[in-house]
Write a structure and sequence with these properties.
41% of the residues lie in helices and 7% in strands. The protein is of the alpha+beta class. It comes from Aspergillus transmontanensis.
């Protein structure tokens, strides 16, 4: 055939498609050019429809089936509405290959007759119009799949009796479910392209921006559904062919794992290759519609009709379990974890996509979910495998079908020409590579269980589907964001997020690129051309997790749409300030009053400030601004303190009792949460303790529900000894003691964070001699005159076979220690968070440890075989080289530790200054006079503390509460005796001491510095300490300084409470000093006291001992 012939055949087919559209539905006036009218969705296409047609077609698939199954809408009126809108959509963007509206109306009439007779729907999709990608065979309808050579044939075979009589398995099942089939949508010839273009309908355009592509290869489906010409349809996906059109057109789509949906009887490209299977999946306007379609097809038990479908019905238990995790998260208990992949290591996404990632990430964090960075095995490896799979046959299949008509291959096709096909051995080797990469990725996914905090690996990965929002024709250069999912056979669901906005998504200036393709894609970004294009993402789950991913996609998309829409610019315009364009925003907007230049979002904030000014400036029209900005949703900044009166702030003024329940409120189980309210956990100020001098009706004033009413308990002996239970000084001392204990425990346990790997080096990159040096200790006699190795140390000469078993034991010892640390941390996190241990964490840790051991021992075996194969001279030289490398590594490590120490010291100094500034408004006065000092415990002691006694018990021998309370009682009494305004002296007992403190500081003389306010009276100043105490030249390097006070070497010893107060936990002290004694002899004894020994008993003893300023004796007694 000549080129003219294929062009004529294509033109004839194109005209026949238009001819199948009824004359009453054909557009009479020319369509505006794309540069004049980009978006033809919404109001533009609605002008050609009746109000009833708009109502029907604007309803999603789930809503339509509710109406048709109840008899509210007839199948005929629904079918006619969608046939009309589909006809309009094709005339606007070229999205249809086959039109069979008349047959659809007849099918709808039969459905209505069935409903009228039986008073029930024929199936869950009763009367629902469904569109199909032009791969599925429908009786009486042609299938071309974009090939000119298939016109008038059955998949290119002339005279085949199956032409116009055969139906694909999916088509049969949809008919059984009550669906109405009415059109087939456009695809690119070959199917192997990210844009939909062929010689029949030319190019399928994006209805949201007709300068851009609708994607491929299910591009017709994506465009038709975006124009609401179909409530849902089915496409196929081998490298992104469902997800790319879905994300380009702003609709939902799912790529399920192979074996869930029936593919039997559908046409395909490169049919027969099984390295990466093409899969069938639905596209729709909502996530719940995807679920409806997916669930309905599975209800037909397709595994009895397609040999490749797994016998795996819809798992309602998985769906409900996922919804339970969502509900649990909504209640404030983090139970879901997600990973964010910002780029795939090869190509960075354009600003609109980067902003979409930022919007979803912030939404997940706002909802309280754990979000981690996704850093998987190199995607370049996977994409290389994918590329070789696509050309395994050398392009023979595509060349054959193109050759039937002589038509040329489109430039967008990713399959090259003139490539030799692979042999059977090469294909087998490629399959092994794919399997190994899948295992590598699986292991990485499993490893995330160590960092999610849920006891499970991440529940889903959020990432782009493409580096761009839609694509400029002929510019699709990278399919890596979707193809890796096909290679791994994972589940992926696409959901819309936002739209490109040229005013927000400005180009970034950069000269560092991940690859040459990255540079090309970056240079192709044109903010004006992409303006208005949908920008969505995909959530990727593991194999066969369709129920879970559909549920999560529905949840996330709803949260994004509810909380990210703003009238300014595109969705989430405010978030763009923290997104990709935050450093390059162009000030292209001007205030109409003062004519200052602003960005699109900062202009809104500029105008908002005049709404709250007490006096107008005479330039800005406040009333006009209020009218314009009245509908704007203003979100509080993440760092905002929320300057609103809260229950804790108001109680001191006598305006509100936070413990009094609202009489009209419905009781709830559990604690009443006060959102945006500063609590003592966050601020360090305990200001909502009930007044013990006031009697409360528990039934009406409890913060808990009636089912969880707190019954007042008598104070323990250590709290009430020698004093009334209502003594405010005792209550205050109890509070301070509790704060001190909790601070110490928090400081101790916060250090227990084991590594994610048993090794602090990449074990698979080590040679056998380097493993000896990394894992074995040096010989004990290394620095002796005549050194010699021990049986367990590394040798002085090149290692041999005798060291293999020693290294093997060292490897296992490290892995066992790592496993033990992980189990201890897991047990600690469960006990601290109040979650019961369910055993999954331990199993996951055990499997991870086993994987580490298998990999390590296998590498050890291979490394030794290589080492043994080397000549002795080569081994000697290599041994010397490894020793030199080990020395260099230690030098680098020391340099790194020195730098880290310098940074930590600098941060510590800054934190001391910050704590000093915050102390006056957040600390109790007593803590300012005698600063508490947490004591981080060694790892083994902290672990023992948590595992053996995780609860604070008054009866514990580990804690000497009498001395703790007595110490703070003396502090409270001294503060009271000096006439200071504080909780110990206030009336009523629980006045808002945080407010009182702030007032007290503000009411003092202006000339009095804050440092003076925090000073104790002269009589309380400790005597001049010895050089050992003041940190002089002879001071011990291990001596610690309280982090609660700024470090000032020039400060006088008598200038305030410089010396550190006695530690809460200590293992050894010298003899206790008498109360109130601060004689030089006692202080000198303290300076030379024996350092704390973690191996000794952990008891709170001698808290009035001489390790710091002694609290004053109480005049009234505890």
């Amino acid at each position: 055939m000549t080129n003219t012939t294929y062009e004529q055949l294509g033109d004839l087919k194109r005209r026949s498609i238009l001819g199948a559209i009824p004359a009453k539905w054909r557009l009479q006036n020319p369509i505006p050019q794309a540069d004049e009218l980009r978006d033809v969705t919404g109001a533009y296409i609605q002008q050609f429809l009746t109000p009833q047609e708009i109502e029907i077609t604007e309803t999603d698939a789930a809503g339509i089936t509710e109406q048709t199954s109840s008899g509210s809408w007839t199948a005929v009126e629904v079918a006619e509405a969608f046939c009309h809108r589909a006809a309009l959509a094709h005339q606007l963007v070229n999205c249809l290959h086959e039109v069979f509206f008349d047959a659809a109306i007849e099918d709808a009439k039969r459905l209505d007759a069935y409903f009228a007779e039986h008073k029930k729907p024929i199936g869950p999709l009763h009367g629902l119009p469904i569109s199909l990608k032009d791969q599925f065979h429908v009786k009486g309808v042609e299938t071309t799949m974009g090939y000119i050579g298939w016109i008038g044939t059955f998949q290119g075979k002339k005279g085949d009796p199956r032409r116009a009589t055969f139906e694909s398995e999916l088509v049969k099942e949809l008919r059984n479910l009550g669906a109405v089939l009415y059109c087939k949508t456009s695809v690119p010839a070959t199917l192997m392209a990210g844009e939909t273009v062929n010689n029949i309908i030319s190019y399928t355009w994006n209805p949201k921006n007709r300068l851009l592509s609708s994607g491929g290869s299910s591009g017709g489906e994506g465009a038709l559904i975006a124009l609401k010409g179909s409530p849902g349809g089915f496409g196929t996906d081998i490298g992104g062919s469902i997800r790319i059109p879905a994300v380009f057109n702003g609709v939902f789509g799912i790529r399920p794992s192979s074996g869930r949906m029936p593919y039997e009887g559908a046409a395909n490209s490169i049919d027969g290759q099984s390295l990466i299977l093409s899969v069938v999946g639905p596209l729709a306007t909502t996530a719940r519609s995807l679920t409806l379609l997916f669930k309905a097809v599975l209800s037909q038990q397709p595994w009895y009709h397609d040999p490749l479908v797994l016998e795996l019905p819809w798992r309602t238990d998985v769906e409900e379990r996922t919804r339970a995790l969502i509900r649990k998260s909504a209640d404030g208990s983090p139970s879901l974890a997600f990973a964010i992949m910002r780029h795939d290591g090869m190509v960075r996404p354009h600003p609109p996509i980067a902003r979409a990632v930022e919007i979803v990430e912030q939404t997940l964090k706002r909802l309280g979910h754990k979000v981690i960075e996704w850093k998987p095995p190199a995607h370049q490896i996977g994409i290389d495998i994918f590329g070789r799979v696509c050309v395994a046959d050398g392009g023979a299949d595509i060349a054959h079908h193109l050759g039937l008509s002589g038509e040329p291959k489109s430039l967008q096709c990713i399959v090259g020409e003139g490539i030799p096909h692979m042999s059977a051995l090469e294909i087998a080797a490629l399959n092994v590579e794919k399997r190994q990469y899948q295992k590598l990725y699986m292991d990485y996914w499993n490893s995330t269980a160590e960092v999610t905090g849920t006891g499970r690996p991440v529940d889903g990965v959020i990432c782009p589907c493409a580096p761009h929002a839609a694509v400029i024709p002929h510019k699709y250069a990278h399919v890596g964001y979707t193809a890796f999912v096909n290679l791994l056979d994972y589940t992926s669901v696409v959901f819309p997020v936002t739209q490109a906005d040229k005013k927000v998504d400005v180009p970034e200036l950069k000269d560092d690129f991940l690859s040459e393709v990255d540079k090309i894609v970056h240079e192709q970004y044109d903010p004006d051309a992409y303006d208005g294009a949908p920008a969505g993402l995909q959530i990727v789950g593991r194999r066969l997790e369709e129920e879970k991913m559909l549920t999560l996609a529905d949840y996330i998309s709803q949260e994004v749409s509810l909380h990210s829409d703003t009238p300014e610019g595109s969705v989430g315009a405010d978030d763009a300030q923290s997104g990709a364009a935050k450093n390059a925003a162009v000030k292209d907007r001007k205030c109409q009053y003062c004519h200052q230049a602003f960005t699109s979002s900062s202009l809104g904030r500029h105008l908002d400030q005049f709404l709250f000014k007490k006096k107008p400036d005479g330039v800005h029209d406040v009333e006009e601004i209020r009218r314009i900005r009245s509908g704007i949703t203003r979100r509080q900044a993440r760092t905002s303190s929320g300057k609103r009166d809260t229950p804790e702030r108001i109680i001191g003024k006598g305006q509100l009792d936070p413990y009094a329940s609202d009489s009209g409120a419905k009781p709830r189980d559990g604690v009443r949460m006060m959102f945006n309210t500063p609590t003592w956990h966050a601020t360090g100020v305990i200001n909502d303790i009930p007044n013990p001098s006031q009697s409360h009706d528990v039934s009406s004033t409890s913060r808990f529900s009636t089912s969880q009413t707190r019954v007042p308990k008598p104070l323990p002996d250590y709290a009430s000894r020698g004093a009334s239970a209502n003594n405010p000084d005792t209550m205050r001392a109890l509070e301070l003691a509790l704060r001190e204990v909790l601070d110490n425990i928090k400081a101790a346990t916060s250090r227990m964070r084991p590594r994610l790997s048993p090794f602090d080096f990449d074990i698979q990159s080590q040679t056998f001699p380097s493993l000896c040096l990394q894992l074995l200790p040096p010989p004990p006699s290394l620095f002796a005159t005549s050194p010699f190795p021990s049986p367990s140390s590394f040798p002085l000469q090149p290692p041999g076979v005798e060291h293999v078993e020693i290294i093997r034991q060292a490897l296992r010892a490290k892995i066992d220690q790592w496993q033990s640390d992980q189990l201890s941390t897991d047990s600690m996190s469960n006990s601290q968070s109040g979650r019961p241990s369910i055993g999954l964490d331990a199993n996951m840790i055990a499997r991870s440890a086993q994987q580490h051991e298998d990999i390590s021992l296998r590498h050890l075996e291979l490394a030794f075989k290589h080492w043994a194969s080397l000549p002795s001279d080569t081994r000697r030289d290599a041994w010397q080289l490894e020793i030199t490398r080990a020395f260099a590594r230690e030098m680098e490590k020391r340099k790194s530790l020195d730098d880290q120490l310098a940074r930590v010291q600098q941060e510590a100094n800054q934190l001391r200054a910050q704590v000093e500034r915050l102390g006056s408004c957040q600390w109790p006065r007593e803590f300012a006079l005698f600063p508490p000092d947490t004591l981080p415990l060694p790892r083994d002691v902290a672990r023992d503390l948590d595992t053996k006694e995780s609860k604070i018990s008054p009866d514990s021998s580990r804690w000497d509460y009498d001395n703790v309370v007595a110490k703070w009682k003396r502090v409270v009494m001294h503060d009271k005796s000096m006439g200071r305004v504080g909780v110990g002296h206030s009336s009523p007992v629980l006045d808002d001491y945080g407010t009182a403190d702030s007032k007290r500081v503000g009411d003092d003389s202006g000339s009095m510095s804050r440092s003076r306010i925090l000073q104790p009276p002269a009589g309380m100043s400790p005597p001049a300490p010895s050089p050992i105490q003041t940190g002089g030249p002879s001071a011990s390097s291990s001596q610690q300084t309280s982090p609660y006070l700024p470090h000032d070497a020039t400060r006088s010893p008598n200038a305030g409470p410089q010396a550190k107060r006695p530690r809460l936990m200590n293992g050894h002290h010298s003899a206790a000093a008498p109360e109130g004694s601060n004689s030089p002899s006692i202080s000198q004894t303290a300076g030379t006291s024996k350092p704390w020994n973690p191996q000794q008993s952990l008891t709170v003893s001698n808290l009035t001992g001489p390790s710091g300023p002694t609290p004053p004796p109480s005049s009234s007694g505890p």
